[in-house]
Write the structure tokens for this entry.
Amino acid sequence: MKWPWLPADNEFKGKPYEISTRVALKKVLRQAAELGVGLNLGIECEVFVVRLTEEGKLEIPNPDDDLTKSCYDIKRFMDRYTWLDKVATAINQLGWDLYSFDHEDANSQFEFDFKYADALTMCDRYVFFRYLAKHYAAEENLVATLYAQAVRR
């Protein structure tokens, strides 16, 4: 799949929009560079894959994903394998160097880890990761969310 997405800096009346998070980060990075400092960033992209009920509530897609601590559980990992494979493949095709992905502590929670990058690049990747995860979840009539409280039972 080709991903037509381009991060951009917001402007207002032809000038950088100071409260844009991307513009603000670039300002801080310039200040750091003036001090001779650079900033690399590595993050853990954690996401819940849930289902929206007819009543508009979020629930865990498979009822047997009910372990108290389901971290690294292979069965629950395989239940979401199609989605995991699509996201992992896309991350690698984008050249982000995925080095791990797994089922995390909570029910239907997953984590993706890829190589660190400079702070601006990593922040752009994280924003795009959210679109990527949501897109592939929607293909399976699921919802990818980063809001943990929404899936509590």
